[in-house]
Design goal:
By secondary structure, the chain is of the alpha/beta class. The chain contains 12 helices and 11 strands. An 8-stranded parallel β-barrel has the order 1-2-3-4-7-8-9-11, surrounded by 8 helices. A hairpin with a 4-residue loop joins strand 5 and strand 6. The protein is globular and about 60 Å long. The two termini are 17 Å apart. The model has no long low-confidence stretch (mean pLDDT 95).
């Protein structure tokens, strides 16, 4: 993915909520590709906690109506629920169907303590919440070996198999696997989210295992500091930090009245996630204002080192915001 690129986040949960129809998602994707401005389209992922169109299935449909856009899952919260051999087969098939355009960003998903729906999601898949880190790290290792090798054998804590050859293999060699995390951001109620020890382990995991980092709810300065820290860790792991990709998963609401834009985004996010976010949380996760202000804030993130801006319109008027973005914000960025 080219530096300073843009991605469109699809509101695939909105289909379940009845606010958006499937043809709307397809049409927005086609328009995003035709615009020549967007480099990728992203789908969210959840099973029971935040029901939506299944991510790999949706991206497979979008692969058939596009030829250039990267197809990303950001983030695959069900990664720890999926057996890595089956997922490797599905993802390799998607990479072949799309001609090598996939981008998998995996994450831990929410802990069982988050809410009853999240606990139910882990329970129904017979996955202990405490196993999520181990399953994520082992799952990534299994995918990498299956994507690139033959007669693969693996004996791990969670998965064991002998002499497995995956066919078809992905077009991309290696097939990129990113990790999505934000251990330093605010919780939805506005409090701190992680201890220093957890932050250290989270960043070390990216430096050791990932091809890139996707994050959210950070200011440009916060991103710059954290990205520098991950880069230093990558060097310690014997990896070239310049080869790691980075992306910010962010909301945008184009409205000359910034406060009204933030209020609309809060209403959108509260419904979308069946939650009640603090105003501070929403503001940290949203670019809002007139076209010029939005362009300036986006430029500040790129100046801080963000490689890719994945943007979701914080409004039920997805088409209207999409048109304003292309017609008014993109020109202000020189796009």
């Amino acid at each position: 993915m080219a530096p300073s690129s843009f991605g469109l986040i699809l509101a695939n949960r909105a289909v379940v909520l009845g606010a958006v129809k499937v043809p709307d998602l397809v049409d927005l994707t086609v328009q995003a590709e035709r615009s020549g401005f967007f480099d990728a389209v992203w789908a969210g992922d959840s099973l029971l906690a935040k029901p939506r169109l299944e991510s790999v299935t949706l991206l497979s449909a979008l692969a058939a109506v596009t030829t250039k856009l990267r197809l990303g899952v950001g983030c695959m919260a069900t990664f720890v629920h999926r057996h890595p051999v089956m997922l490797a087969h599905q993802w390799a098939s998607l990479d072949v169907l799309s001609g090598g355009r996939t981008l998998l960003a995996v994450c831990l998903g929410g802990p069982s303590e988050a809410n009853a729906a999240q606990a139910a999601e882990h329970d129904v898949m017979s996955i202990a919440s405490a196993e999520r880190v181990g399953r994520l790290e082992e799952g990534i290792a299994v995918l990498r070996r299956l994507f690139g090798g033959k007669n693969v054998s693996h004996q791990g804590r969670f998965y064991s198999f002998e002499n497995v050859t995956l066919e078809p293999r992905p077009v991309q060699q290696p097939c990129p696997i990113w990790i999505a995390s934000n251990p330093t951001g605010l919780t939805w109620k506005g409090g701190a989210s992680a201890s220093e020890a957890v932050i250290e382990r989270s960043f070390r995991r990216i430096a050791r295992h990932a091809d890139g980092w996707m994050t959210n709810k950070l200011s440009p300065d916060e991103f710059r500091r954290q990205w520098s820290r991950i880069g230093a860790m990558a060097r310690e792991e014997g990896r070239d930090p310049t080869k790691l990709g980075s992306a910010l998963y962010h909301n945008i609401n184009i409205n000359e009245d910034r406060q009204k834009g933030l209020e609309e985004t809060k209403a959108f996010l509260d419904t979308y996630y069946t939650s009640k976010f603090s105003r501070e949380f929403v503001e940290q996760w949203t670019i809002a204002g007139g076209p010029t202000q939005c362009a300036q804030e986006l430029s500040a993130y790129f100046a801080a080192g963000v490689g890719h801006m994945a943007l979701r319109f914080g409004s039920w008027d997805q088409v209207g915001q999409f048109k304003r973005f292309l017609g008014e914000v993109a020109p202000a960025l020189g796009g």
